Request: fold
Amino acid sequence: MTAPSRSAADGLGYARPDKTNVIDWERIEKFVGFGRADAPVIFIGMEEGLKSAEALDEDLAIRSRYEQPIMDLREAHKGIAGTENYFDPDRAPRQQTWRVMADIMFASKASGHDANGR
Reply:
């Protein structure tokens, strides 16, 4: 593999792989998801939005470098195209995919969370 290049397009200075990197499909297929393995509640399902078709190969090369099958969401998205604002409270896009399930968990007494205090 070649050394990652810096892409001005990502705007954050994260190392982005260049186009000669090989995609490691075995590693990608073993990836489970984001969060904590010891979390009291987990949601299982697919939610892999593609923000930039032009950056797909680069995004897959970044995902090929994931070292663990479960990763921190913020760490895993460093350098992934179109996710620059995900963790900025003033600019983060609204994500509705898991909202109903999250509301059910927040409303349950077992969760220990207050649905109104998200």
In short: The radius of gyration is 16 Å. The longest strand covers residues 5-6. The beta strands are 5-6, 15-16, 33-34, 70-71. Residues 69 and 78 are 16 Å apart (CA to CA).
